[in-house]
Amino acid sequence: MGDTTIRDGKAAVRISDVARHANVGAGTVSRVINGSQSVAPETRKRVLAAVRELGYVPNLVARSLAANRTGIIAAIIPVIGYTQHAQVIQGLTEVLHERGTNLMIGASGHSPEMEEKIVGAFLARRPDAFYLTGTWHTDVTRELLKASGLPVIEGSNLTETPIDMVVGYSNFAAGRELTRLLALRGHRHIAHVTTKYEPNDRITDRLNGYKAACSEFPRAQQPIVIECENSFEGGAEAIALALKFDQRIDALFCATDLMAVGAILECQRRGIEVPTRLGIAGFDDLPIASAVVPSLTTIHVDRVEMGRKIAEVLLRRVEGESLLSHEIDVGFEIKERNSTFTKGEKRRNRSTG
Amino acid sequence: MGDTTIRDGKAAVRISDVARHANVGAGTVSRVINGSQSVAPETRKRVLAAVRELGYVPNLVARSLAANRTGIIAAIIPVIGYTQHAQVIQGLTEVLHERGTNLMIGASGHSPEMEEKIVGAFLARRPDAFYLTGTWHTDVTRELLKASGLPVIEGSNLTETPIDMVVGYSNFAAGRELTRLLALRGHRHIAHVTTKYEPNDRITDRLNGYKAACSEFPRAQQPIVIECENSFEGGAEAIALALKFDQRIDALFCATDLMAVGAILECQRRGIEVPTRLGIAGFDDLPIASAVVPSLTTIHVDRVEMGRKIAEVLLRRVEGESLLSHEIDVGFEIKERNSTFTKGEKRRNRSTG
DNA sequence: CTGTTAGCGCATTCAG
DNA sequence: CTGAATGCGCTAACAG
């Protein structure tokens, strides 16, 4: 039989079936499917009817091959289970789906080498564009992507030297501003809690922002950097390390909300008053940040919106529009809440060790 | 020129280029690429060398069309930003990537109608298998999927009537067991906090499990059901509603950790002692569940592992293995922690009013 | 073991 | 405006 089969025996109706049924050529069917204008209203109606009657669904694999364009966008994030990155993907899918484009996703596990492998594997599937998290990639990754000529967006940070485009915000500026704010509100010995187990540009830039702020204080503070695991447990550990290191520390700026919330909860267990004895700030504005007691001062970025914007730009590029700018800064916002001294509040004498 | 182009001018090397370079036929190159055994070691070496020299990367779109198999698996979850579902996807991608298969993902936003649309769109891309969240789908979705003949796994719950297969655990049993445990430990007036804004089978089964347990108590308790938004804020609201409804309520079984943690934090704000005045239990075992003070009694399921298992089964089915069972129960585990009365603890008189 | 041939289902010429 | 022809890059079947 001439019947094509899907997998194991289900007959799939092809464009030629529709054409025969509507008494037109395959090309004509293709034209109405793809909304080409040059087709008589009468013919269009006949074709559409045939499509409906036969339940025709275009085979996008075949279309992809013929049109040299898949309608698939590839995205690589560190871990799918992390809220921040998942939110970007959520925004991406929302607009992609509206536009008939689909998303292929991979998780690099914070490893540039793994990312490189995934990029290679994805390229073989000929996506129309790429989204990568962050700005740190292997040379091979950069080469592969540049050679492909595809639109590429690196997200969640900014950089002077993007592969193609970058859409994000300055983690450096955010780290610096938040540190400045803590100082302005009266915190005097501010330590930074970072993580080395998931090395990436965002974390590093936040650290550098903190250091930059330290160096500009009237009586320049020596940066105090504590390294922990990026988790609630890590944040709890940071409390122990900080107090052991220097009793004068009166604020912790944690590079992630995960650690910051862990720190707040540890203070609760230990009976350490936040923010009076110890101020705590985070980064990401996870849902738990505003729910925890006391609520957490942190950096907010609308990541779903960022994902939507990334999709918009990527789609426009795929449509052939030339890029206007290599960088889109979506900005960040400091959410000043109760875990740090806030406006009008005075710094009380803390009880000495 | 005969050169094929990727997008805009980048020459892509094809299988025929490799064939010519290695002095063999295209078919032979295809055989070595796909690991067919019937090829002389010497020829294989020549082909591999040519592949390397030319930097050949197979075009998987073309392969998909010719082989009638894409190496793509489609997954649909309610919201990508929710940790529980994202974890399943994480497990899925991990094993898929090892096996050269990729993942296409969509978010239904808890809407069966949206899910139906996505299923339709995905089918046009000819994935080799489907993963769906939960067991509630529109009739059209079920029809489409059955007609496709593709392996389909519904996850995160169990059902008697799967489209094809189901891999998950019994939300009903988990809800019932947890309620039983609360009663066993001395909680007497247990209310259930559910959510109606994201109607789904998992939430409903948890509620039914709760009701089932209530009806078996010595002096059968009338179920008390509180409806809130599925969020930290919703959990906080549940506290207010519960206390207003009946002061005798001494335990809240929340259908999600999100609400349970929100409830615990609200108790902290109101100075309500947990678990002595009010026991609180959740469901999902989010990372925050073990970090919050007091730590949350909840239901744990290893979702990353579940995702891996789903991938394994799906791949095996795609390889042609026939399915042995329509159901895989991955089980659940009660994590009894400090937010409820625990073993050996006695119920104290609670302060009235 | 290996070269050749014939599609996979569609978009896109190119004539008419 | 429309039908027929051509090929996207690859796999699979079939001879050799």
TrEMBL record, chains A, B:
SUPFAM superfamilies: lambda repressor-like DNA-binding domains, Periplasmic binding protein-like I. GO terms for molecular function: DNA-binding transcription factor activity; transcription cis-regulatory region binding. The keyword Transcription regulation applies. SMART domains: HTH_LACI. Pfam families: LacI (PF00356), Peripla_BP_3 (PF13377). Keywords: DNA-binding, Transcription, Transcription regulation. This is LacI family transcriptional regulator. The keyword Cytoplasm does not apply. Residues 13-67 form the HTH lacI-type domain. It comes from Microvirga aerophila.
